[in-house]
């Protein structure tokens, strides 16, 4: 501190303090007025006393500000509400969708959490979503995740691709269910990673290890090491998850090249079960640099509002499985059942080396009957473990202290 500035500084310091005090007083009085006005506004007009009516007139600015806030709150609430089209409207809309699917030259599908809810992977931000549950301090069980299997929607998309009606699928889901439905890798971009894949980036090109369990239990924002190592170079393996606040750079399974090319060629984009809040930020997926008439037509299936609704050719408020079932009916196509024996994860998976058997505590996807492996079953007790970290806990537990640190227990 400069001594010479002593006297001059002290008077200006006093002024500053007085100014600060005045500001605090003003804020307190404003808060008092806000509380008063809010209380009066809650009453029906007829029930307000003369004095209260006069107070409203005196604080007109505050009344207006509070009304503006109320409008904003209502809009926000409406955007979060789940809306369902009635049966007739749904059928009507789906037949329009069927026409678009039949006549599309290059149909690209964008998927989000909503297509996996039927697989008992809870939605993120819906009324019963994981985010909401964690906000309320409730636990989400890890067994919810490991038991998930491709849904009717996953199987329909796979069929539509097989029949060449869908050219590419871009998903923000990390649950690996598109891959497990049998959709070929070249037709898939998993923009936020795949919970079953770990990679060695020391090998060139990066070497992939598909596993039949969630590889992400130790990983979190900027910490991607899975605790296992590459059998070729000994390098540490990392997960492929793109956490909130990160930019995904892995070529696979993100396949940004495939996603960008697909969007460029697309004349129809079908969005399924995504709030689009994250996807909308990826400019190259929407051809926004083209004039409106040259952009792909948007068909959106989601129960809640999305930021792309105003740009959509058609918005369908329905559950993905319900809409897809109707769509396949309209298209006169069979919906294949998910068959575990054909789940590619079992043929893609690299078995763990004996010394790695205890490197994780997540439940292993049980192989189909007749293909059981012979490693000892050590995963039986993990069923009720709450999710602590990994791709599913990412972001949601932001600001919440981890109650248990069992990371090194395994
Ligand atoms: Zn390696």
From TrEMBL:
Keyword Cell cycle attached: no
SUPFAM superfamilies with a match to the protein in the record: DHS-like NAD/FAD-binding domain (SSF52467)
GO BP: any one term: epigenetic regulation of gene expression
Cofactor: Zn(2+)
Positions of Zn(2+) binding: 200, 203, 230, 233
Subunit structure: Interacts with UBTF and the RNA polymerase I complex. Interacts with components of the B-WICH complex, such as MYBBP1A, SMARCA5/SNF2H and BAZ1B/WSTF. Interacts with ELK4, leading to stabilization at target promoters for H3K18Ac deacetylation. Interacts with histone H2A and/or histone H2B. Interacts with DNMT1. Interacts with SIRT1.
Annotated protein name in UniProt: NAD-dependent protein deacetylase sirtuin-7
Organism (species): Myripristis murdjan
Lineage of source species: Eukaryota, Metazoa, Chordata, Craniata, Vertebrata
Gene symbol of the encoding locus: SIRT7
